[in-house]
């Protein structure tokens, strides 16, 4: 079997990150969203400020067998349910296509990565001043655009859910994600390619950090399986 660089590289980055985290003596666990439950989710237990600028990165391992729309995260605000969201779906060419929703506007499914079961690093960003958004995969910008609604910020005091879409504020979950997720970080700034690329290679970036991966700040549904340091590297 030929060694597929697209499979090996993400795995290598993950292992390097893992070792750095273990060195730093911090927690590095992954969430497994199993397909035998459609109810799994994790809620980020923090209070969100109003955001004129936001960036978010997460590592995902997609279930290669799942063909439906899958929600990586959904952020609902009390005044608007589809405030900020990232979803993905497999296409005919066996790639996972990603799309952002900002203030309810569904942007195109275009940024993609192969449906290869490997870990992939995804970053998304939006800046109200410029109206620009972007999606980065494995450290490269795969899609960007403008023309989002810049008349308002992303509302604060919202509910942030990993792995489910919210059809009502904090409830009526639909379009689940299946697979593994880890290393979610959220910033109130716009990421550039150099940041996404450095983060993919496991640099840390502490300026303007709102949330940094920490199981103690997640409320995790009992159907989610936690994998700790050791099994994540196995
Ligand atoms: C991960 O490893 C660190 C350092 O060895 C340890 O402190 C932490 O408890 C581990 N986390 C889990 C979930 O096992
Ligand atoms: C969420 O955070 C608040 C404030 O830090 C805390 O009081 C509460 O117990 C946390 N809830 C969960 C489920 O972790
Ligand atoms: C949420 O689900 C409940 C129970 O199925 C239903 O009665 C309600 O209309 C739903 N709400 C929304 C906003 O979809
Ligand atoms: C998630 O991680 C577990 C443990 O490493 C692995 O067995 C499983 O295949 C992974 N799931 C997917 C969809 O890759
Ligand atoms: C938003 O974009 C503007 C224009 O490109 C830039 O000057 C500003 O620094 C960005 N804001 C943040 C918080 O990154
Ligand atoms: C980002 O959040 C931090 C911490 O809440 C705050 O100090 C900083 O001013 C915020 N930056 C922007 C650009 O909103």
Automatic annotation (TrEMBL):
<comment type="subunit">
    <text>Homopentamer. Pentaxin (or pentraxin) have a discoid arrangement of 5 non-covalently bound subunits.</text>
</comment>
<protein>
    <recommendedName>
        <fullName>Pentraxin family member</fullName>
    </recommendedName>
</protein>
<dbReference type="InterPro" id="IPR013320">
    <property type="entry name" value="ConA-like_dom_sf"/>
</dbReference>
<feature type="signal peptide">
    <location>
        <begin position="1"/>
        <end position="24"/>
    </location>
</feature>
<dbReference type="Pfam" id="PF00354">
    <property type="entry name" value="Pentaxin"/>
</dbReference>
<keyword id="KW-0325">Glycoprotein</keyword>
<feature type="domain" description="Pentraxin (PTX)">
    <location>
        <begin position="27"/>
        <end position="232"/>
    </location>
</feature>
<dbReference type="InterPro" id="IPR051360">
    <property type="entry name" value="Neuronal_Pentraxin_Related"/>
</dbReference>
<dbReference type="GO" id="GO:0046872">
    <property type="term" value="F:metal ion binding"/>
</dbReference>
<keyword id="KW-0479">Metal-binding</keyword>
<keyword id="KW-0732">Signal</keyword>
<keyword id="KW-1015">Disulfide bond</keyword>
<keyword id="KW-0106">Calcium</keyword>
<dbReference type="InterPro" id="IPR001759">
    <property type="entry name" value="PTX_dom"/>
</dbReference>
<dbReference type="GO" id="GO:0005576">
    <property type="term" value="C:extracellular region"/>
</dbReference>
<comment type="similarity">
    <text>Belongs to the pentraxin family.</text>
</comment>
């Amino acid at each position: 079997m030929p060694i597929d660089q697209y499979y090996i590289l993400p795995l290598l980055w993950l292992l390097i990150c893992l070792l750095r985290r273990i060195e730093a003596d911090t927690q590095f666990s992954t969430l497994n969203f199993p397909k035998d439950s459609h109810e799994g989710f994790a809620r980020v237990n923090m209070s969100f400020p109003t955001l004129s600028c936001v960036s978010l990165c997460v590592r995902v391992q997609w279930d290669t067998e799942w063909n439906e729309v899958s929600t990586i995260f959904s952020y609902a605000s009390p005044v608007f349910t589809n405030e900020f969201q990232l979803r993905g779906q497999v296409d005919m060419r066996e790639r996972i296509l990603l799309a952002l929703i900002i203030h309810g506007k569904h942007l195109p499914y275009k940024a993609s990565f192969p449906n290869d079961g490997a870990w992939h690093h995804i970053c998304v960003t939006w800046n109200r001043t410029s109206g620009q958004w972007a999606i980065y995969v494995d450290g490269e910008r795969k899609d960007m655009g403008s023309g989002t609604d810049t008349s308002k910020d992303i509302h604060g005091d919202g509910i942030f859910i990993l792995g489910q879409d919210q059809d009502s504020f904090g409830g009526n979950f639909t379009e689940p994600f299946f697979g593994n997720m880890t290393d979610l970080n959220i910033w109130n700034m716009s990421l550039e390619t150099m940041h996404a690329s450095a983060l993919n290679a496991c640099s840390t970036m502490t300026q303007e950090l709102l949330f940094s991966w920490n199981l103690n700040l997640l409320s995790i549904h009992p159907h989610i399986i936690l994998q700790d340091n050791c099994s994540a590297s196995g």
